[in-house]
Amino acid sequence: MADNYGAAAEFYDIAGRPYWKPRAAALTKAMSAAVQTNSPIVDVGAGTGLVVAIIGAALATVPILAIEPSPAMRAALASRVQANGLAPRVTIAAGTLAETTLPDQIGGMVACGVLGYLTPDDRHALWRLLADRLAPGCRAVVDAAPFPATRTVRPIRVGVARFGVRHHEIWLGSRPTDPGRIELTTMCRVVQDGRTVRESVSTVQWWALEMRTIVAEATAAGLTCRRAGWDLAILTAGPDRPLDTQRSGTVTSTKC
Ligand SMILES: C[S@@+](CC[C@H](N)C(=O)[O-])C[C@H]1O[C@@H](n2cnc3c(N)ncnc32)[C@H](O)[C@@H]1O
Asked: Where are the transmembrane segments (predicted)?
């Protein structure tokens, strides 16, 4: 099967790091109840392991199940897990969410940057699974699509980093396709002295999931849902604390 992230994995962290930096405190706080349960936190679409590293550093004892189907992303994930001393408690599942056997009780879940890959049926199944298996008081963090289903967004440079004499850039754009669907375009470029020395363009199809849809669907499945910033939602299987105790900081960046 083709690896959607084969070309972009090398560039992913250039946008992913600044995206997660202002969200790390809210993420950690949302996952903190897992410590009392000793049930795993599940990171769906763990990518290069940015979320695993944040949670792993903050919550010293919690086991983590990192689900990641892309071999290229998984290479970075495994490397980060080892480099951060997390290997004894991070299990890496090489597949999609649907292909992975999940624990009976879940201490927390993060599904960010990934809901757009799930069909509406798969998404509904995810909400039901969370309602059934999230341990009492534990939470899931999910996000809305970065781009709307209603208009084209011309490519935006979402990250740039220096590597020696060159700069690596990552750009994202999108255009509507079918109703509720978008085509996301990722362009990765290496520039030296104003000249492009390497470039790749890849596209993926996404469900452009809006926050109000997340809230409506999750609530209908029996979850308590509240916002944390413009793109994150925190879901609980029972009642949760008020929003203002866990609001995240400035959240303006994006990644895909
Ligand atoms: C945009 S990246 C997000 C990475 C990470 N969650 C983050 O926020 O930094 C999306 C990731 O989800 C993975 N993915 C795509 N479809 C998936 C599925 N059905 N189940 C699990 N992971 C999936 C991709 O391979 C990719 O690594």
From this structure: 46-67
Report pTM. Answer: 0.93
- Residues 168 and 218 reside in one and the same domain: no
> Residue 45 is encoded by which pair of tokens?
């679409």
pLDDT digits (tens, 9 = 90+) for 12-71: 999 999 999 999 999 999 999 999 998 999 999 999 999 999 999 999 999 999 999 999
Q: Are residues 71 and 173 in the same domain?
A: no
Number of folded domains that form the chain: 2
Instruction: Give the pair of three-digit tokens for residue 57.
Output: 């550093």
Asked, for residue 95, whether it belongs to a domain, the answer is yes
Best residue for ligand 1 mutational test, from 27, 77, 114, 122 (most atoms within 8 Å of Cβ): 114
Q: In what side-by-side order are the strands of the sheet with 106-111?
A: 90-93, 64-67, 41-44, 106-111, 134-143, 232-236, 224-228
Q: What is the overall mean pLDDT for the chain?
A: 93
pLDDT-derived band at 256 (thresholds 50, 70, 90) equals: low
76 in the same domain as 158: no
Work out the pLDDT band at 230, boundaries 50, 70, 90.
Answer: confident
Pairing of strands 224-228, 232-236: antiparallel
Is residue 251, in this structure, part of any structural domain at all?
no
> Which residue from 80, 97, 117 has its CB within 8 A of the most atoms of ligand 1, so it is best to mutate?
117
